[in-house]
Amino acid sequence: MSDTTVIKVTSETAPIGEMGQKHLALSKKLSMRLWENEQPNDAKPMTQRPYEAIGYVINGRAELHLEGQMILLEPGNSWVVPEGASHTYKILEPFTAVEVTTPPAEVHGRDRA
C-alpha cells in the first residue's frame, strides 16, 4: 500500500536547520529547503555530500565551485550538484534559493558529512 499522507508546511512556520536553512518539505526520498537572505561570505572549504542537490535561485548572486568549475548563479538559474561531487558556494550578494536533495539531506546527519 502506498503512503497517501498529505503534508502542508508554510515557510513562516517551517523548522530551521543548524545552518539557517528552512525545511519546507520532507518525504522518504527527497527534501526541499529554503536558503533565505544568505549574506555575502567567502567560499567555505570544499565538501562532498552523500546526496544529490538541485536548486533554483530566487534572488541574489552566488558562485558555485564544483569539481574545478565555477558557475555564477543568478535569479532564474538552476543548478545540480551530483552526489559525492566536491563543491562549495560563495555568496556574492544577499541570496535566496530553493534546494531539493535526494536522499533527504537532513536524515541521519548527512548535512554534517
Please tell me about this protein's structure.
With 113 residues, the chain is mostly beta strands. The protein has a single domain (22-112), classed as Jelly Rolls (Sandwich). It has strands at 22-26, 31-38, 52-66, 69-73, 78-81, 87-102. Strands 1, 2, 3, 4, 5 and 6 form a six-stranded antiparallel sheet that branches. Strand 3 and strand 4 form a beta hairpin. The chain starts with 21 loop residues before the first strand and ends in an 11-residue tail after the last strand. 15% of the residues are buried.
How many beta strands in the DSSP annotation?
Answer: 6
Structural class: mainly beta
The low-confidence parts are none
Order of helices and strands: EEEEEE
**How many structural domains can be distinguished in the coordinates?**
1
Distance separating the two termini = 33 Å
As a percent range, the share of strand residues is: over 45%
Instruction: Kindly report the CATH topology.
Output: Jelly Rolls
Name of the CATH first level: Mainly Beta
What is the CATH superfamily?
Answer: Jelly Rolls
Helix content: under 10%
